[in-house]
C-alpha cells in the first residue's frame, strides 16, 4: 500500500517561479533556467511512491534537492507544481488549518542540527511537539517520558541540551518526533553531524525503533553506507531528479547511470580493488627441495598452518599443510613432494568481489599467480576485511 | 524661500487639540490615576520595607553583590532626605518603562511578522530616537497640561524605540530550523510565537527592556522642565539657584536608581537557566 505518492513534483526557488516552470517543460536544463531567469530548480518532475512501513532513503550530494524534496512532503516548502498524496489526500490542496491537522497527526520530523530549544530541559524539548495537540498536561508529560525512555534517555529529563553530546541531542530530537506518535517519520540527515561510532549506534537505535513500532520512515542522507544499512528502498537524486530508485541490492548490482556508479564505487571498494592491490608478501616460502623438518620449522616459526611451495625460480607448485607434515614425520618420510596439494589460484586482476566469498570459506590463504605461474603474493582473510 | 514645516505642524497639533480632546483627556485621566495609585502605595510603605523588598528582588534575580549595593545605596538616598523625590522618579520610570514595553514589544513582534510595517516603522523609530527629547515636551504639554502625565507620555515616546528594535531583532534571529520544527509539528502562528520565537528571543527582548528603562531614566530630568516632580525637579532647582550641593545629591540619587534598575533588568533570566557554568 502506498503511504505517500509523489507525482510530477517540481519546485523552483525564486520570485515568480512559473517562468522557470515553462522553460523546464520545454525541455530546457536547470542551468539554462538559472542563466536566463536567475531561478534555481530545486526539484524537477519527480515521481515515486513510498509504501506503508518501509524505510525509504533519499540519497544525494548536497545541492541535489533531497532536503527540498523532504520538505515538500509535509509542505514546509510548498512545491510549485505536482501532487504529494498522503493517505489519499493531496496535501497541496489543503487549507492552512487542514494542513496543520495532517502535520500533527501524520508527521514527525527530525532535523540535521537537532533543532532543540537551548533554554528548555530535555523533557520540555521532548514535549514540544505535543504542545500543538490538545492533550492534558499529564498525558503530554507521560508520553514524552515514555518516548525518552525508548531512545535511552531515562534519567536525563532535567538536563539542558548544552549538557548533552551530539548523539544524545539527536536522541532528544528523535524522542520529540516519536512522542506525537506520527505514522510518518521524516528525517533530514539526522546522523550527518555525528561521529562515526555514534552514528552507527543511532542507526541501530533507529532500526530497533522501526522494528518495534509501525512507522513509515523517509530518511535523507549523503552517505551510501548509511543508505544501504537502513533503506528498504533507496532513491538516488542528482540535480533535482531521481536518477535511480530501487532496493539496496539493485543499486549496488546494476548502477543505471555513471553518476550512481561513481557513488557506488567510491564507497564500495570491493568492486574496484583487485588482488594485486591487497596481496601481501608471504613471510616464508617452502622450496621443492626442502625436507619435512625444514617445512615443520618454517611453519612453526611463522605460526602458519600451511605454507606455499615454489621452485627455485619462484614458480608456484602448491601448498603443504602442517598436519600432513606431522603425519609424514611420524610415518618416517623425508620428502615433501607427495604432500603438495592444490588450492584455488587467483589472478592479480581479479576483484575482491570475485574472491571474497571463496576466500571466506577457505581454511588456507590464496596464492596470487601471474600468467607465467610466478607467485606474486598471497591473500589472507584479514587483509580483505581491512580493505573493504 | 521660506518653507513653513513648523507652521503646518502647529496647524496639525491644533487640529488634534480641537477634535480629539476627549480622547486625550481620557488617556490623561487613566495615566494619572495609574501613577497616583502606584505612588501612594509606595509612599505609604515605610521606606525600610521598600528598601528590603527591592534588595530581595535584586537578590532573587541577580546576585548578592548587587543586592548589597541596592540596600546600602537606598539607605544613602533615604539619609540624604530625598526619599519622596526618589519614589516619584522611580514610579515615573517604572510606569513609563511599563507602557513603553506594553506598546513596544507587540509592535516589535508586528515588525518581525510584516515587512510593510517594518518599512514604515524603521524610519519612524530613527526619527523618534534622534529628535532632541526636549521637542517632545511641547506637544505633550499642549495635549496633557503640565505635571506627571505629559512627562510619562514624552518618556514613553522617547524610550520605546529600543524595545521595538530589540524585540524585532531577537525574533528575526531565531534559527530557521527552529521555525521549521514548530511548523512540522503543526503549530499555529501564535503557538509558534509563544513556544519557540519568544523564548528564543528572550535575551534580546530583555536587553530591549533594559535599554528602555535606561532611556526613561535619562528623560526624567528633562521632564522636570514641564513640572514632573521627583529627582529631576531637585536637579532643576539646583541649576536655577546655582546650588551645587542640591544638584549633586539629586544627581547622585538618579545615578543610584539607574545602577539598581540596570543591574536588575540586565541580569534577569525569565524562565531561563541560571548561568551556573
What does this structure look like?
Chain A folds into two domains: 2-267, 3-Layer(aba) Sandwich (Rossmann fold), CATH 3.40.50.300; 275-387, CBS-domain (Roll). The mean pLDDT of chain A is 88. Chain A starts with a strand and ends with a helix. In chain A, a hairpin with a 2-residue loop joins strand 9 and strand 10. Chain A has 388 residues and is of the alpha/beta class. In chain A, helix 13 (292-301) packs across helix 14. Chain A has 16 helices and 15 strands. Chain A is elongated and about 90 Å long. Chain B is an all-alpha fold and 277 residues long. Chain B has a domain at 81-266: Orthogonal Bundle (MetI-like fold), CATH 1.10.3720. Chain B is 83% helix and 0% strand. Chain B contains twelve helices and no strands. Chain B has helices at 5-19, 21-44, 47-61, 64-79, 83-113, 115-130, 134-144, 148-172, 176-184, 189-223, 231-241, 244-266. The longest helix of chain B is centred in the last third of the chain and has 35 residues, at 189-223. Chain B is globular and about 65 Å long. The chains are: A alpha/beta (388), B mainly alpha (277). The A-B interface holds A 71, 74, 76, 99-104, 107-109, 111-113, 115, 117, 119-120, 128-129, 131-132, 160, 180, 186 and B 175, 177-178, 180-181, 183-188, 191, 195-196, 199-200, 202, 271-273.
Amino acid at each position: 500500500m502506498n503511504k505517500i505518492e509523489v507525482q510530477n513534483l517540481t519546485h523552483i526557488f525564486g520570485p515568480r517561479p512559473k517562468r522557470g516552470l515553462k522553460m523546464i517543460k520545454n525541455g530546457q536544463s536547470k542551468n539554462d533556467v538559472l542563466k536566463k531567469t536567475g531561478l534555481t530548480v530545486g526539484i524537477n518532475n519527480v515521481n515515486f511512491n513510498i509504501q506503508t512501513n518501509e524505510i525509504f532513503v533519499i540519497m544525494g550530494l548536497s545541492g541535489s534537492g533531497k532536503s527540498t524534496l523532504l520538505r515538500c512532503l509535509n509542505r514546509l516548502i510548498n512545491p510549485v507544481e505536482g501532487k504529494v498524496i498522503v493517505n489519499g489526500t493531496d496535501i497541496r490542496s489543503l487549507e492552512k488549518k487542514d494542513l496543520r491537522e495532517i502535520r500533527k497527526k501524520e508527521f514527525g520530523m527530525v532535523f540535521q542540527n537537532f533543532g532543540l530549544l537551548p533554554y528548555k530541559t530535555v523533557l520540555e524539548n521532548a514535549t514540544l511537539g505535543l504542545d500543538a495537540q490538545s492533550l492534558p498536561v499529564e498525558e503530554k508529560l507521560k508520553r514524552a517520558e515514555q518516548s525518552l525512555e525508548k531512545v535511552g534517555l531515562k534519567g536525563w529529563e532535567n538536563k539542558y541540551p548544552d549538557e548533552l553530546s551530539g548523539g544524545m541531542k539527536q536522541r532528544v530530537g528523535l524522542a520529540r518526533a516519536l512522542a506525537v506518535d506520527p505514522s510518518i517519520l521524516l528525517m533530514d540527515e539526522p546522523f550527518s553531524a555525528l561521529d562515526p561510532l555514534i552514528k552507527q549506534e543511532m542507526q541501530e537505535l533507529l532500526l530497533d525503533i522501526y522494528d518495534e513500532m509501525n512507522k513509515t520512515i523517509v530518511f535523507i542522507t549523503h552517505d551510501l553506507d548509511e543508505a544501504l544499512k537502513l533503506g528498504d528502498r533507496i532513491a538516488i537524486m542528482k540535480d533535482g531528479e531521481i536518477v535511480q530508485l530501487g532496493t539496496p541490492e539493485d543499486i549496488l548490482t546494476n548502477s543505471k547511470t555513471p553518476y550512481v556508479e561513481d557513488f557506488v564505487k567510491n564507497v564500495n571498494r570491493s568492486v574496484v580493488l583487485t588482488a594485486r592491490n591487497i596481496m601481501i608478501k608471504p613471510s616464508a616460502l617452502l622450496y621443492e627441495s626442502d625436507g619435512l623438518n625444514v617445512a615443520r620449522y618454517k611453519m612453526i616459526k611463522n605460526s602458519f598452518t600451511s605454507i606455499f611451495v615454489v621452485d627455485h625460480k619462484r614458480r608456484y607448485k602448491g601448498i603443504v599443510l602442517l598436519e600432513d607434515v606431522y603425519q609424514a614425520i611420524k610415518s618416517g618420510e623425508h620428502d615433501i613432494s607427495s604432500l603438495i596439494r592444490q588450492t584455488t589460484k587467483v589472478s592479480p586482476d581479479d576483484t575482491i568481489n570475485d574472491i571474497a566469498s571463496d576466500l571466506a570459506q577457505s581454511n588456507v590463504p590464496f596464492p596470487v599467480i601471474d600468467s607465467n605461474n610466478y607467485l606474486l603474493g598471497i591473500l589472507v582473510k584479514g587483509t580483505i576485511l581491512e580493505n573493504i | 524661500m521660506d518653507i513653513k514645516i513648523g507652521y503646518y505642524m502647529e496647524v496639525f497639533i491644533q487640529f488634534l487639540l480641537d477634535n480629539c480632546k476627549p480622547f486625550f483627556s481620557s488617556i490623561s485621566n487613566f495615566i494619572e490615576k495609574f501613577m497616583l495609585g502606584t505612588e501612594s502605595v509606595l509612599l505609604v510603605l515605610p521606606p525600610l520595607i521598600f528598601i528590603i523588598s527591592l534588595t530581595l528582588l535584586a537578590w532573587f534575580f541577580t546576585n548578592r553583590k548587587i543586592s548589597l549595593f541596592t540596600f546600602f545605596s537606598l539607605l544613602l538616598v533615604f539619609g540624604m532626605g530625598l526619599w519622596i523625590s526618589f519614589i516619584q522618579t522611580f514610579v515615573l520610570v517604572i510606569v513609563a518603562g511599563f507602557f513603553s514595553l506594553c506598546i513596544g514589544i507587540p509592535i516589535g513582534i508586528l515588525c518581525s511578522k510584516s515587512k510593510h510595517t517594518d518599512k514604515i516603522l524603521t524610519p519612524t523609530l530613527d526619527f523618534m530616537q534622534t529628535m532632541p527629547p526636549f521637542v517632545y515636551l511641547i506637544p505633550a504639554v499642549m495635549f496633557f497640561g503640565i505635571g506627571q502625565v505629559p512627562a510619562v507620555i514624552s518618556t514613553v515616546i522617547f524610550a520605546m524605540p529600543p524595545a521595538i528594535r530589540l524585540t524585532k531583532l531577537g525574533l528575526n534571529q531565531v534559527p530557521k530550523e527552529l521555525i521549521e520544527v514548530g511548523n512540522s509539528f503543526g503549530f499555529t502562528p501564535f503557538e509558534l510565537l509563544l513556544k519557540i520565537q519568544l523564548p528564543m528571543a528572550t535575551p534580546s527582548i530583555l536587553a530591549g527592556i533594559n535599554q528602555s528603562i535606561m532611556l526613561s531614566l535619562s528623560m526624567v530630568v528633562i521632564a522636570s522642565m514641564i513640572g514632573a516632580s521627583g529627582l529631576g525637579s531637585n536637579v532643576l532647582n539646583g541649576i536655577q539657584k546655582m546650588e551645587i550641593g542640591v544638584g549633586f545629591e539629586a544627581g547622585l540619587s538618579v545615578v543610584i536608581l539607574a545602577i539598581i534598575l540596570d543591574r536588575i533588568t540586565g541580569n534577569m533570566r525569565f524562565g531561563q537557566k541560571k548561568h551556573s557554568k
